[in-house]
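Translate sequence into structure tokens.
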Amino acid sequence: MSASAPARVLPNSVHEPVEAVVPQEKKELSSNASIATDSVDRAFHAALARFTGGLSPAAIALAFADWQLHLLGSPGKRAALAGQAIQNALGFANALVPKHARFEPWSVIKPPATDRRFAGRDWELPPFNLLAQAFLLAEDWWHSTTTDIHGLAHSNAAIADFVLRQSLDTVAPTNFVFSNPKVLRKIMETGGGNFVYGLHNWIEDWLMLLRSGGPGNDQRFVVGKDVAVTPGNVVYQNELIELIRYTPTTPSVRPEPVLIVPAWIMKYYILDLSSHNSLVRFLVQNGFTVFMISWKNPTSEDRNLSLEDYRERGVDAAVAAINEMMPERAIHAAGYCLGGTLLSIAAARLERDRPDCLRSVTLLAAQTDFTEAGELTLFVNESQVAFLEDMMSQRGVLGPLQMAGAFQMLRSNDLIWSRMVHDYLIGERAPPSDLMSWNADATRMPYQMHSDYLRHLFLDNDLAEGRYKVDGRAIALSDIRKPMFVVGTLRDHVAPWKSVHKIHFLVDADVTFVLANGGHNAGIVAAPDEAEHSYQVLTKKSGDPYVGPEEWAKLAPSHEGSWWEEWVRFLAARSGPPVAPPSLDRSSPEAPGSYVLQH
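Result follows.
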């Protein structure tokens, strides 16, 4: 062989493995480098989240860039904004120099009916009223800068408007001592003692925050003593739920039990508050056997619990336990908020595999289509979800502070700034209530479950579009054919009623839809003894034409009172004749159980 001839490698020679191994080593090194890079990025995002409250700076920056670029490229819109600013300035100047030397409050702009910051006669005094009108004009003008811009993505416009509104809320005249007449009046009444009381309240809140790592609940409402007091027993327990069966109080009961699935973002006892406003007690008094799921408050060790785990070990496990205790009894299943969404998934699977298991399905302020899920969707895009996942991957859970912060920002006027002014500047606490105490008794969310929820339901809308899989098979809400009772609430910021109303075109069932006054919590906790409640109700048969939400609101008759009574009539009409109450095992632990006491 000549020196210039190329060397030949024979098959199965010693050179062949060397040539095969080198690329494999490169792949392993590349994979390890990618994992290390990803870990660094996740750690950085988790650290950054501590300063942003879990909000993705990239998501906000992209929204603002889109808004600014489209506004820059819209000379007509900019001219309209300039004209609006001049018109506002002229109107305000006229208010400064009123005709006939008589000042007319709110002559230029009035606060919206939902804005209670400027309520009261003190805000009609000239200097304070002018400050309030100037602020409202500025707020209205900045809102106009994010609306009606051709080409601007609706989601980015909503994010920009939300951030601008939050920023303006921080400098509202209500938030400062010398521009808030209510604070000044309190100073005169107490000789400045309100600041002493306010400082005491502030120190008390900070000590509570440092002790518990989250907003503490009011110790005047103790679980098992003052709230969650309806008698019952824990009849089943696994690593995720305790199942409570409540003690019958009537000589006979309906044969079909009622299973309630609350959201795990909250403690179950919002539906069993004090004796006068407990939905559980109301059902028991009306002759129903009631079961309630009480969720475990997860820790970082539960980070890998998935949404499917919550279905299997939660709803499905509870149904199986009830079937064992009360065989051949179809169940009236009800779900509240996120628990209702999970119930709809479980119900679609049960209708497919065990069609005789359920008698009816009730959803309380629960969404099944997330395309118009209100302002919560501002926190759900690819950038934001990835940022939250990185934050949760470090901690294993989404903590109560992050969840509480997100909900408070949706109503920052009522839940943040007004409360701070009242507690710290005026120096008074709001009267204690069982609902507010429950609201402060916060829970955590496991990393994997919350990621599944945000991606599959909010981001991709898999449930409404037939892509959500249970046991490896896609389910469809149209498989639900049992009668449904669905409740939306008029002022719901978490599950807007028009979004809840979409259940009408997702299921092939008779739907009795109720629109109750109130919000996400107060609209559901609507005891019949309380006079302020009202609702509309209308039933759509499975074969009837679809009626949109606006038309529905015009057609549905209004009723004074609580929707609870409407629900009892719905359940009774779909239940068998009363029978003797089932026997109880008194040896099992008493309600409320142990999981609800976890912090």
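Note: The mean pLDDT is 90.
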